[in-house]
Design goal:
With about 575 residues, this protein is α+β, with helices and mostly antiparallel strands. The chain is built from 15 helices and 21 strands. Strand 3 (about 85-90) and strand 4 (about 100-110) form a beta hairpin. Keywords: Coiled coil, Hydrolase.
Length: about 575
């Protein structure tokens, strides 16, 4: 009875395997080449192969040109190691159509533990794989779009913080390598819409290629409307995309052997040249290049991205160009307000004015040296609050007022008082700092009397002949314009002044806070650096050498604020 029930169960299993929609196969590993020995009807329905054509053959006939060799190798390893495995691989039906096949293979052992068969189950999972591939493709496309947005944002940020046209071009080139290109060049014309282009910036994944890219620009001598891709783009034509460049330079430049040699050294593969436009004018061209062996082949999608970047670059470059023009005019105006200093009898004088990069790059710093009619020498250094043309204009007015009262022979405190009155009465400026000093004619022993008043300005430094350093910080008073009543006649004696006798050989150094107010640094530490530098200069150094030595050590790498520096040596 038990044998009868077992036979019934076996027959039921056989009918179930024949009736199921899942493809079943049995192979015999004991025969040469591990052939199929049985397949169910679902296998024929799945693959199109009838049992008579496949029994006795190895199942590799389902593989084709795009079947993954790595997946096939993993199946082979599992068969040799007599273990189960499930793989998804691309197979081909009898009519040649491809499908994704999920193959599960399990070993079958007899009662003695000997391997007798492998059972395989195949299922068509094409729809599942296609959906997964589409999901991955959509994810990759979204990631690419996010990467492009990041690149656009980074390039825009870099260019908007540029300090000039060349700086903007260099920042643009660096922001695109290596994310979008292996090499990048930016050519800008000296006059928008026409003129001679100059290669203002290059960047390359390999820094050694940058000089070669500059050399290629020199050799090709691009000009508007010329025979090159760059020349056509500069003339206002559409962007140029060359997905696959010739491998040999002689094919690209048949009549230019020098350029062809550089071309071969650069290993160029694909190139885009897009116009850099702003306000309806072509300013230049942006060239993006990939290199063999790893550079990608540019597509139209890449060209759209490059054109978007070039549009943003055009605005940044045009703004930088306008800024440079305005800045040059403003600096010319500001420098015209400063005096030409020269030595006077018995005194060495040297001055320097450095323009900062903050705001509109002009400010209210000034210095002045007055050979007064009574034989004294007037010295002034000041700083009007602000960094714009208004501050520069106020500086000119204030300097003129100070000169006027100093010329009358007034004492330093009185001169600053009168400046304060006019600043407040005429609304010339919001506030200003200033130091005014008088150096009297020498006494018979050669010494001179120094008197000075300080309205909120950094203390001048006095270096005596024996090397003693003195901060002239006595009798300091508020800034000009800071206290409404300070300079009024009704306010009492007004600003006090300090007096000091200076022996022959004394050195005076007056400066503005552009040397001390540096972002991220302590102002007191910067002031001490100036003092140490001054003491460390050679004894008896000429005034011009003092100015040069102090600036060499103490000038910040990135000068945010203007600097006025005045050195005066009272000769022995």
């Amino acid at each position: 009875m038990a044998d009868h029930d077992e036979r019934r169960l076996e027959a039921l299993r056989d009918r179930a395997v024949l009736a199921t929609d899942s493809s079943f196969t049995i192979t015999d590993p004991r025969q040469p080449d591990h052939p199929l020995v049985w397949v169910n009807p679902a296998f024929t329905a799945l693959t199109g192969y009838p049992a008579a054509e496949v029994v006795g053959r190895n199942c590799r006939f389902l593989q084709g040109r795009n079947t993954d060799p790595a997946a096939v190798a993993r199946i082979g390893d599992a068969l040799r190691e007599r273990r189960s495995i499930t793989e998804v691989l691309l197979n081909y039906r009898r009519d040649g159509t491809a499908f994704w096949n999920e193959v599960g293979i399990s070993p079958v052992f007899d009662d003695a533990g000997e391997l007798v068969n492998f059972v395989g189950v195949q299922n068509d999972v094409t729809e599942r794989v296609v959906v997964e591939q589409e999901r991955r493709a959509a994810h990759a496309e979204a990631e690419e779009a996010r990467a492009q947005l990041r690149m656009l944002a980074e390039a825009t940020t870099q260019m908007t913080t540029a300090l000039g046209v060349v700086d903007a071009c260099e920042r643009l080139a660096r922001s695109l390598v290596p994310e979008l290109a292996d090499m990048c060049a930016v050519d800008v014309m000296d006059t928008p819409a026409h003129g001679v282009p100059r290669r203002l910036a290059v960047a390359a994944r390999d820094a050694a290629d940058e000089e070669q890219l500059l050399e290629l620009g020199r050799l090709r001598n691009y000009h508007v409307g010329g025979g090159s891709d760059t020349g056509q783009v500069l003339a206002g034509d559409q962007a140029v995309l060359v997905p696959e460049l010739p491998e040999q330079g002689a094919e690209r430049y048949p009549d230019d052997s020098a350029a062809a040699a550089v071309y071969d050294m650069l290993r160029l593969r694909s190139v885009m040249v897009v116009p850099v436009r702003a306000r309806g004018r072509v300013l230049g061209a942006l060239t993006l290049i990939t290199q063999h062996p790893y550079g990608r082949r540019y597509t139209v999608r890449d060209l759209h991205l490059a054109s978007d970047i070039a549009g943003r670059a055009g605005l940044a470059i045009d703004n930088a160009r306008l800024y440079e023009t305005e800045h040059a005019a403003a600096v010319t105006l500001q420098r015209s307000l400063l005096p030409e200093v020269s030595d006077v009898a018995g005194v060495q004088v040297a001055a320097r004015y450095l323009v900062g990069v903050d705001g509109n790059q002009v400010g209210g710093d000034w210095y002045d040296v007055l050979d007064l009619p009574d034989g004294a020498l007037g010295l002034a250094v000041g700083d009007v609050v602000g960094h714009d043309l208004r501050a520069a204009a106020a500086m000119g007015q204030l300097r003129g007022v100070l000169r006027s009262y100093a010329w009358d022979g007034r004492r330093p405190g009185s001169v600053l008082d009168r400046c304060d009155q006019l600043v407040q009465g005429l609304d010339m400026a919001a506030m200003a700092t200033a130091v005014y000093a008088r150096v009297e004619a020498p006494d018979p022993d050669g010494s001179r009397v120094l008197s000075y008043a300080n309205a909120g300005h950094p203390a001048p430094l006095l270096l005596e002949p024996d090397g003693t350093l003195v901060r002239l910080n006595e009798q300091r008073s508020p800034m000009i314009g800071a206290v409404r009543s300070l300079g009024r006649r009704s306010s009492g004696p007004g600003r006090a002044e300090a007096v000091r006798r200076c022996p022959p050989g004394t050195l005076l150094l007056l400066y503005t806070d552009g040397l001390t107010d540096v972002a991220g640094e302590d102002a007191d530490d910067r002031a001490e650096l100036i003092e140490r530098t001054l003491v460390g200069l050679p004894r008896g150094a000429a005034a011009k050498d003092v100015v040069a030595g102090v600036l060499e050590v103490c000038c910040p790498p990135l000068l945010r604020d203007d600097v006025a520096l005045l050195a005066v040596r009272l000769d022995a």
